[in-house]
Amino acid sequence: MSHIIKVSGLGKTYKSGFTALRDVNLDIQKGEIFALLGPNGAGKTTLISIICGISSPTSGQVTAHGFDIVKDYRLARSKIGLVPQELSTDAFESVWATVNFSRGLFGKAPNPEYIEQLLRQLSLWDKKNAQMRELSGGMKRRVMIAKALSHEPEILFLDEPTAGVDVELRRDMWEMVRGLREHGVTIILTTHYIEEAEEMADRIGVIRQGEILLVEEKQALMDKLGSKQLNLHLTSPLTEIPAALAEFNLQSELEGSFLRYSYDSRQNGDSVARLFRILSEQGIGIRDLNSSESSLEEIFVSLVHEETAK
Questions:
Q1: What average pLDDT does this structure show over 286-290?
Q2: What keywords sit in the KW lines (predicted)?
Q3: Could you tell me the pTM of the whole model?
Q4: How far apart are alpha carbons 36 and 44 in whole angstroms?
Q5: What interhelical angle do 167-182 and 137-149 show, nearest 10?
Q6: Per-residue model confidence (pLDDT) at position 18
Q7: Alpha-carbon torsion, ordered 302, 304, 309, 310, to 10 deg
Q8: What is residue 225's predicted lDDT score, i.e. its pLDDT?
Q9: Where is pLDDT greater, at 98 or 197?
Q10: What whole-number distance in Å separates Cα of residue 211 and Cα of residue 47?
Q11: Are 188 and 285 within one domain?
Q12: For residue 273, what are the domain limits?
């Protein structure tokens, strides 16, 4: 798969002396959904602003669809659509006028058939004549996406796309984003909702204090860093954990009625079988059991805490 965005040695230091980005290197693959995760102030919006040509880098280079975002600004920017966090539109303009005007800003010839298709795709067609001030927050967010897609870009940036929308609408928007990807649009999103990245992303990047900590395929990241837990409900409570089980570092809960075993399945392939064997040898009965694995949120928090401790 070829890259559609390439970021090389990117740095951004403001006149105040604050460094927002440090030697960022990142390749976004054509046709993927890429999620950029990081705490507030990590540099997510700064990175997007530079790639989209809104802010200038202090050092490094960025290309979009092969065009340098500084030397070939117009060509690079024509390939990119941006949905910012802020909902900034003319309150008295109609939905149709808002989206159509945005297309004209990029020098695109009028194409009412495409605008109609876009509004239908985003469930906005029945609101085409409504003024922006009449719309709900979720509908305004859809209009912002329509504006970003009005000039038919191949790359779409979504900066906190579901901020302030309810859970049902958030899931509708996830489906919409998948549909855009199926139409060949490359999606890059930043989000505070970890489940959003876990639900949609093909690859995930983690940024903190202006530095990229890692970039991994979602499942590879969870396989590499995620731990599993085995929860055992015992037939009889234990007053203490037998010495024969010391190697498992079991946690006892609810006055010895439950045991919890945390492990890495990649490194401890036979440890569960060995645990069951020793439990049987010790005469410890199991009434019920269940297993779980780390969520992306737990992995993200763990990563950020590890870097903070260094």
A1: 86
A2: ATP-binding, Nucleotide-binding, Transport
A3: 0.73
A4: 7
A5: 10
A6: 94
A7: 120
A8: 60
A9: 98
A10: 10
A11: no
A12: 228-293
Per-residue DSSP letters for the chain?
--EEEEEEEEEEE-TTS-EEEEEEEEEEETT-EEEEE--TTSSHHHHHHHHTTSS--SEEEEEETTEETTTTHHHHHHTEEEE-SS----TTSBHHHHHHHHHHHTTPPP-HHHHHHHHHHTT-GGGTTSBGGGS-HHHHHHHHHHHHHTT--SEEEEESTTTT--HHHHHHHHHHHHHHHHTT-EEEEE-S-HHHHHHH-SEEEEEETTEEEEEEEHHHHHHHH--EEEEEEESS--SS--GGGGGG--EEETTTTEEEEEE-TTT-TTHHHHHHHHHHHTT--EEEEEEEE--HHHHHHHHHHHHHH-
Q: Are both 219 and 254 inside the same structural domain?
A: no
Residues 193-230: tens digit of each pLDDT: 677 777 888 998 988 889 998 898 887 776 666 667 78
Tokens of 101: 């005007």
Longest dimension (CA), the chain: 79
Q: Using an 8 Å Cβ cutoff, are 231 and 291 in contact?
A: yes
Do residues 112 and 168 share a domain?
yes
Is residue 80 within 8 Å of 51, Cβ to Cβ?
Answer: yes
Does 28 score more than 80 pLDDT?
Answer: yes
Domain count, the chain: 2
Joined tokens for residue 168: 């049902």
Residue with the two structure tokens 């549909």: 179
Tell me how far apart the alpha carbons of residues 27 and 224 are, in angstroms, rounded to a whole number.
21
Q: In 3D, which of 54, 60, 59 has the Cα closest to residue 73?
A: 54
